[in-house]
Amino acid sequence: MLSTNRIILIAFGLAVVSCHAASEDTRQLALLGGTILDGTGAPEVTNGVVIVNGDRISCIGSSADCAVPTRAEIIDVTGKWVTPGLVDSHVHFSQTGWFDGRPDGIDATEVFPYVGVASKLREQPERFYRSYLCSGVTAVYDVGGHQWTLSLGTNTENDADAPHIRAAGSLVTHAGLDILNADGLNTFLPMSTVAEGRESVRKLSDWGSTAIKVWWIKPADDEAKTLDEVYLAVADEARARNLDLIVHVTTLREAKLAVGAGAQLLVHGVLDDPVDEEFLRAVVENDVVYTPTLVVSSNWWRALASVALNTPNQANDPNSCVDPDTARKIADTSILAPYLPEYMSTEQAEKMLEYVSEYEEFLKSELLKVHAAGITIATGTDAGNPLTLHGASMMDEMLFMQDAGIPAAEILVMSTQNGARAMGRLEDFGTLAPGKIADLLVLGADPSVDVANFKKLEMVVRAGQPHSIADLSYGRRCAASDEPGDVVQAQVEAYNDHDLDGFLACYADDAAIHDLTGKQPVIRGQSDIRETYTFLEHIPEGAGVEIIDRIISDSIVVDMERFVGIPEGAVMPDAVAVYEVRDGKIQSVWFPPADVN
Ligand SMILES: [Zn+2]
């Protein structure tokens, strides 16, 4: 799916000095001159060398430590940073990132039949694989979902176009939702009695799962005691079958019990109550990995509010790692409006949005307590939930941790080494060391001073195969939606920002610009349009256009433009621009002569 070759390496500025025609020999890479951050938190190595032999790292260190094999492809990474690939320790491949995958949030199965959504997820996981690699994520832990997710691990382990995946399969729970269990998908297996809980664990073990995820939603008071017993039986059955135990738990009482009974991984952590000393000590003493999932709840509320308020969503996705289908769905909130649950009034939506920042402050202070206690934190997003998008949400989660006050250098370790530990795969990846699988990133800026520098991702190596970001990206989009008015508006804004790439992202590859005065020839195609508009990068700040009137009729947008920020004394009459927009891109523009105004 994703070709890699020397031309691409050169194209994104990493010169390949020598190359060797592939024979039966394995491919060798030598990344030279970069600053290496190995994922353990050890001091950086400047002017470093990483030698990759086949799918493994064979040497890492200074030029004195590692000889460069004569036939290695040299990748000059001088002035760049090299880190392990990121690990998202909480994702769901059986969710889409929108409500079509969570009809329990907004039931729009009339327009998005759930079984159809599930089949598409099963048939096309590659679109999310690409989103993950594009976001620098080379391994993910799928901690619960449809039965078919259990095959993803073996399917992707040696696939350089996919992240490593470990999947837990069906969630064992007392709180299953019928709507997500349709047609034998088995999102949930039951645990309402001890016998049922044990049987569910046996079933998962037979299906090939290596980890059991318990979805332990806060029980009603009169159920709590019974559930404690069932949980202990499930934990016991998992231990007997040598299965890891992952527990989704958000309340302090249940979290303490989960930790005491042998959970290896707590996902979400305590969200509903403040943590206490006893809990923090137990997590440390039992060596439990803690994945806080900080952005997912707010994203649910933002997603619901966006439908109630009819505001299109756009991912924080500078490298266009979100697949176009998902991007379109999250932008088109109006299609879900008729199915919004009754309680989600406009007022309720506004109230929820106000509550988001208050809740986020609580999460930040709790995270700092967990961090201060010395607990092993692994970054995890809960990707697949509405607006927590596969791949792209990793950046949101890391930025949240940084905003809370955790230093970037530590977040780097939490997002690499600790994630691999959460997955039980630290022997194989998560840090850069000889013998480990060559999953690594090349960045244009230092992520140990600011995690936002993971946006400056230039190359992703997975199992020794380099991919450029240009190769992984789904391409820059013009606007959040494909609506002609939004596309033209985004184009005007890019023009006013003097952002040439953003401007060109609004034009189709074969777009044409017609000057109806007859003075200018037709400008056709991206490269000619780029050449014509390079002046944007040189004009004074503030120079641009103001739209004084706009008419939209289907695919045609007519703007009356007034030039602003022009030099004193210069005269530029108002102009009319007529756009034809199709599939989210401007196909044609006509500029009529000024005197018809
Ligand atoms: Zn989850």
SSE layout and pairing:
Layout: H1 6-11, E1 28-36, E2 45-53, E3 56-61, E4 73-76, E5 81-84, E6 86-91, H2 114-123, H3 126-134, E7 137-142, H4 152-156, E8 164-167, E9 171-173, E10 188-190, H5 194-207, E11 211-216, H6 221-240, E12 244-249, H7 252-260, E13 265-267, H8 277-285, E14 289-291, H9 296-308, H10 324-331, H11 346-372, E15 376-377, H12 393-404, H13 408-414, H14 417-423, E16 440-443, E17 457-462, E18 465-468, H15 469-472, H16 484-496, H17 500-504, E19 507-515, E20 523-524, H18 526-533, E21 544-553, E22 556-564, E23 575-582, E24 585-591
Parallel strand pairs: 1-4, 1-5, 6-7, 7-8, 9-10, 9-11, 11-12, 12-13, 13-14, 14-15, 19-24
Antiparallel strand pairs: 1-2, 2-3, 5-16, 16-17, 17-18, 19-20, 21-22, 22-23, 23-24
The chain binds zinc ion (ZN).
Structure description:
There is one protein chain. This protein is α/β, with parallel strands linked by helices and 597 residues long. It folds into 3 domains: 6-84 and 434-472, Urease, subunit C, domain 1 (Roll), CATH 2.30.40; 86-423, Metal-dependent hydrolases (TIM Barrel, Alpha-Beta Barrel), CATH 3.20.20.140; 484-596, Roll (Nuclear Transport Factor 2, Chain: A), CATH 3.10.450.50. Helices cover 31% and strands 22% of the residues. The chain has 18 helices and 24 strands. Strands 1, 2, 3, 4, 5, 16, 17 and 18 form an 8-stranded mixed sheet that branches. A hairpin with a 2-residue loop joins strand 23 and strand 24 (585-591). Helix 5 (194-207) packs parallel to helix 6 (221-240) and helix 7 (252-260) runs parallel beside helix 8 (277-285). The chain starts with 5 loop residues before the first helix and ends in a 6-residue tail after the last strand. Mean pLDDT is 91; it is low at 1-24. Bound molecules: zinc ion.
